[in-house]
Design a protein that fits this description.
about 120 residues; single chain
C-alpha cells in the first residue's frame, strides 16, 4: 500500500495531538478530582464489578499524582476540608491560557514553503 504525504501528515497530527496538545491543554483540577473520586470508590470497595476504564485511569493517576502533596490534598478532600473551588485555586497557576498548534508542510526540492512566503524588507538607509 502506497502512502501519500497527506496520510503521513494526518498520522503526525494525530500523534502530536495525543502526546503534546491534549496533555498540555487538559484541566488538571478535573483530573485530580476524578482521581480522588475513583480512588475513594476503590478504597471503600464500592465497585461491584470494576470498570476497566476507571482501573486503568487509577493506575495512571497514581503514578502521575505521586507524592506527599497529593496525599495531603486527597486526605483533606476526603475529610471534607477541601472542596473543588479551593482545589481549583490551588492549581490555577498551572493552567495558563495557552494555545497549542501543529502544522505540517511538504518540502519539495529541499526548500521549505516558509522560504517562499514574502518577506518583509527593512529599509536600512
Amino acid at each position: 500500500m502506497h502512502r501519500t504525504p497527506a496520510s503521513f501528515f494526518s498520522r503526525a497530527e494525530e500523534r502530536f495531538r495525543s502526546f503534546v496538545k491534549e496533555p498540555l491543554e487538559i484541566d488538571v483540577t478535573s483530573e485530580i478530582l476524578r482521581y480522588f473520586s475513583v480512588r475513594r470508590k476503590w478504597e471503600r470497595h464500592e465497585y461491584v464489578l470494576p470498570i476497566t476504564e476507571d482501573l486503568e485511569f487509577l493506575g495512571d493517576a497514581r503514578r502521575h499524582f505521586l507524592g506527599q502533596r497529593f496525599e495531603d490534598l486527597y486526605r483533606s478532600w476526603e475529610e471534607g476540608r477541601l472542596d473543588e473551588v479551593a482545589l481549583r485555586a490551588e492549581f490555577a497557576q498551572l493552567t495558563p491560557g495557552r494555545r497549542i498548534s501543529f502544522q505540517t508542510y511538504l518540502v519539495r526540492n529541499g526548500r521549505s514553503p516558509l522560504d517562499e512566503q514574502p518577506k518583509k524588507q527593512v529599509n536600512a538607509a
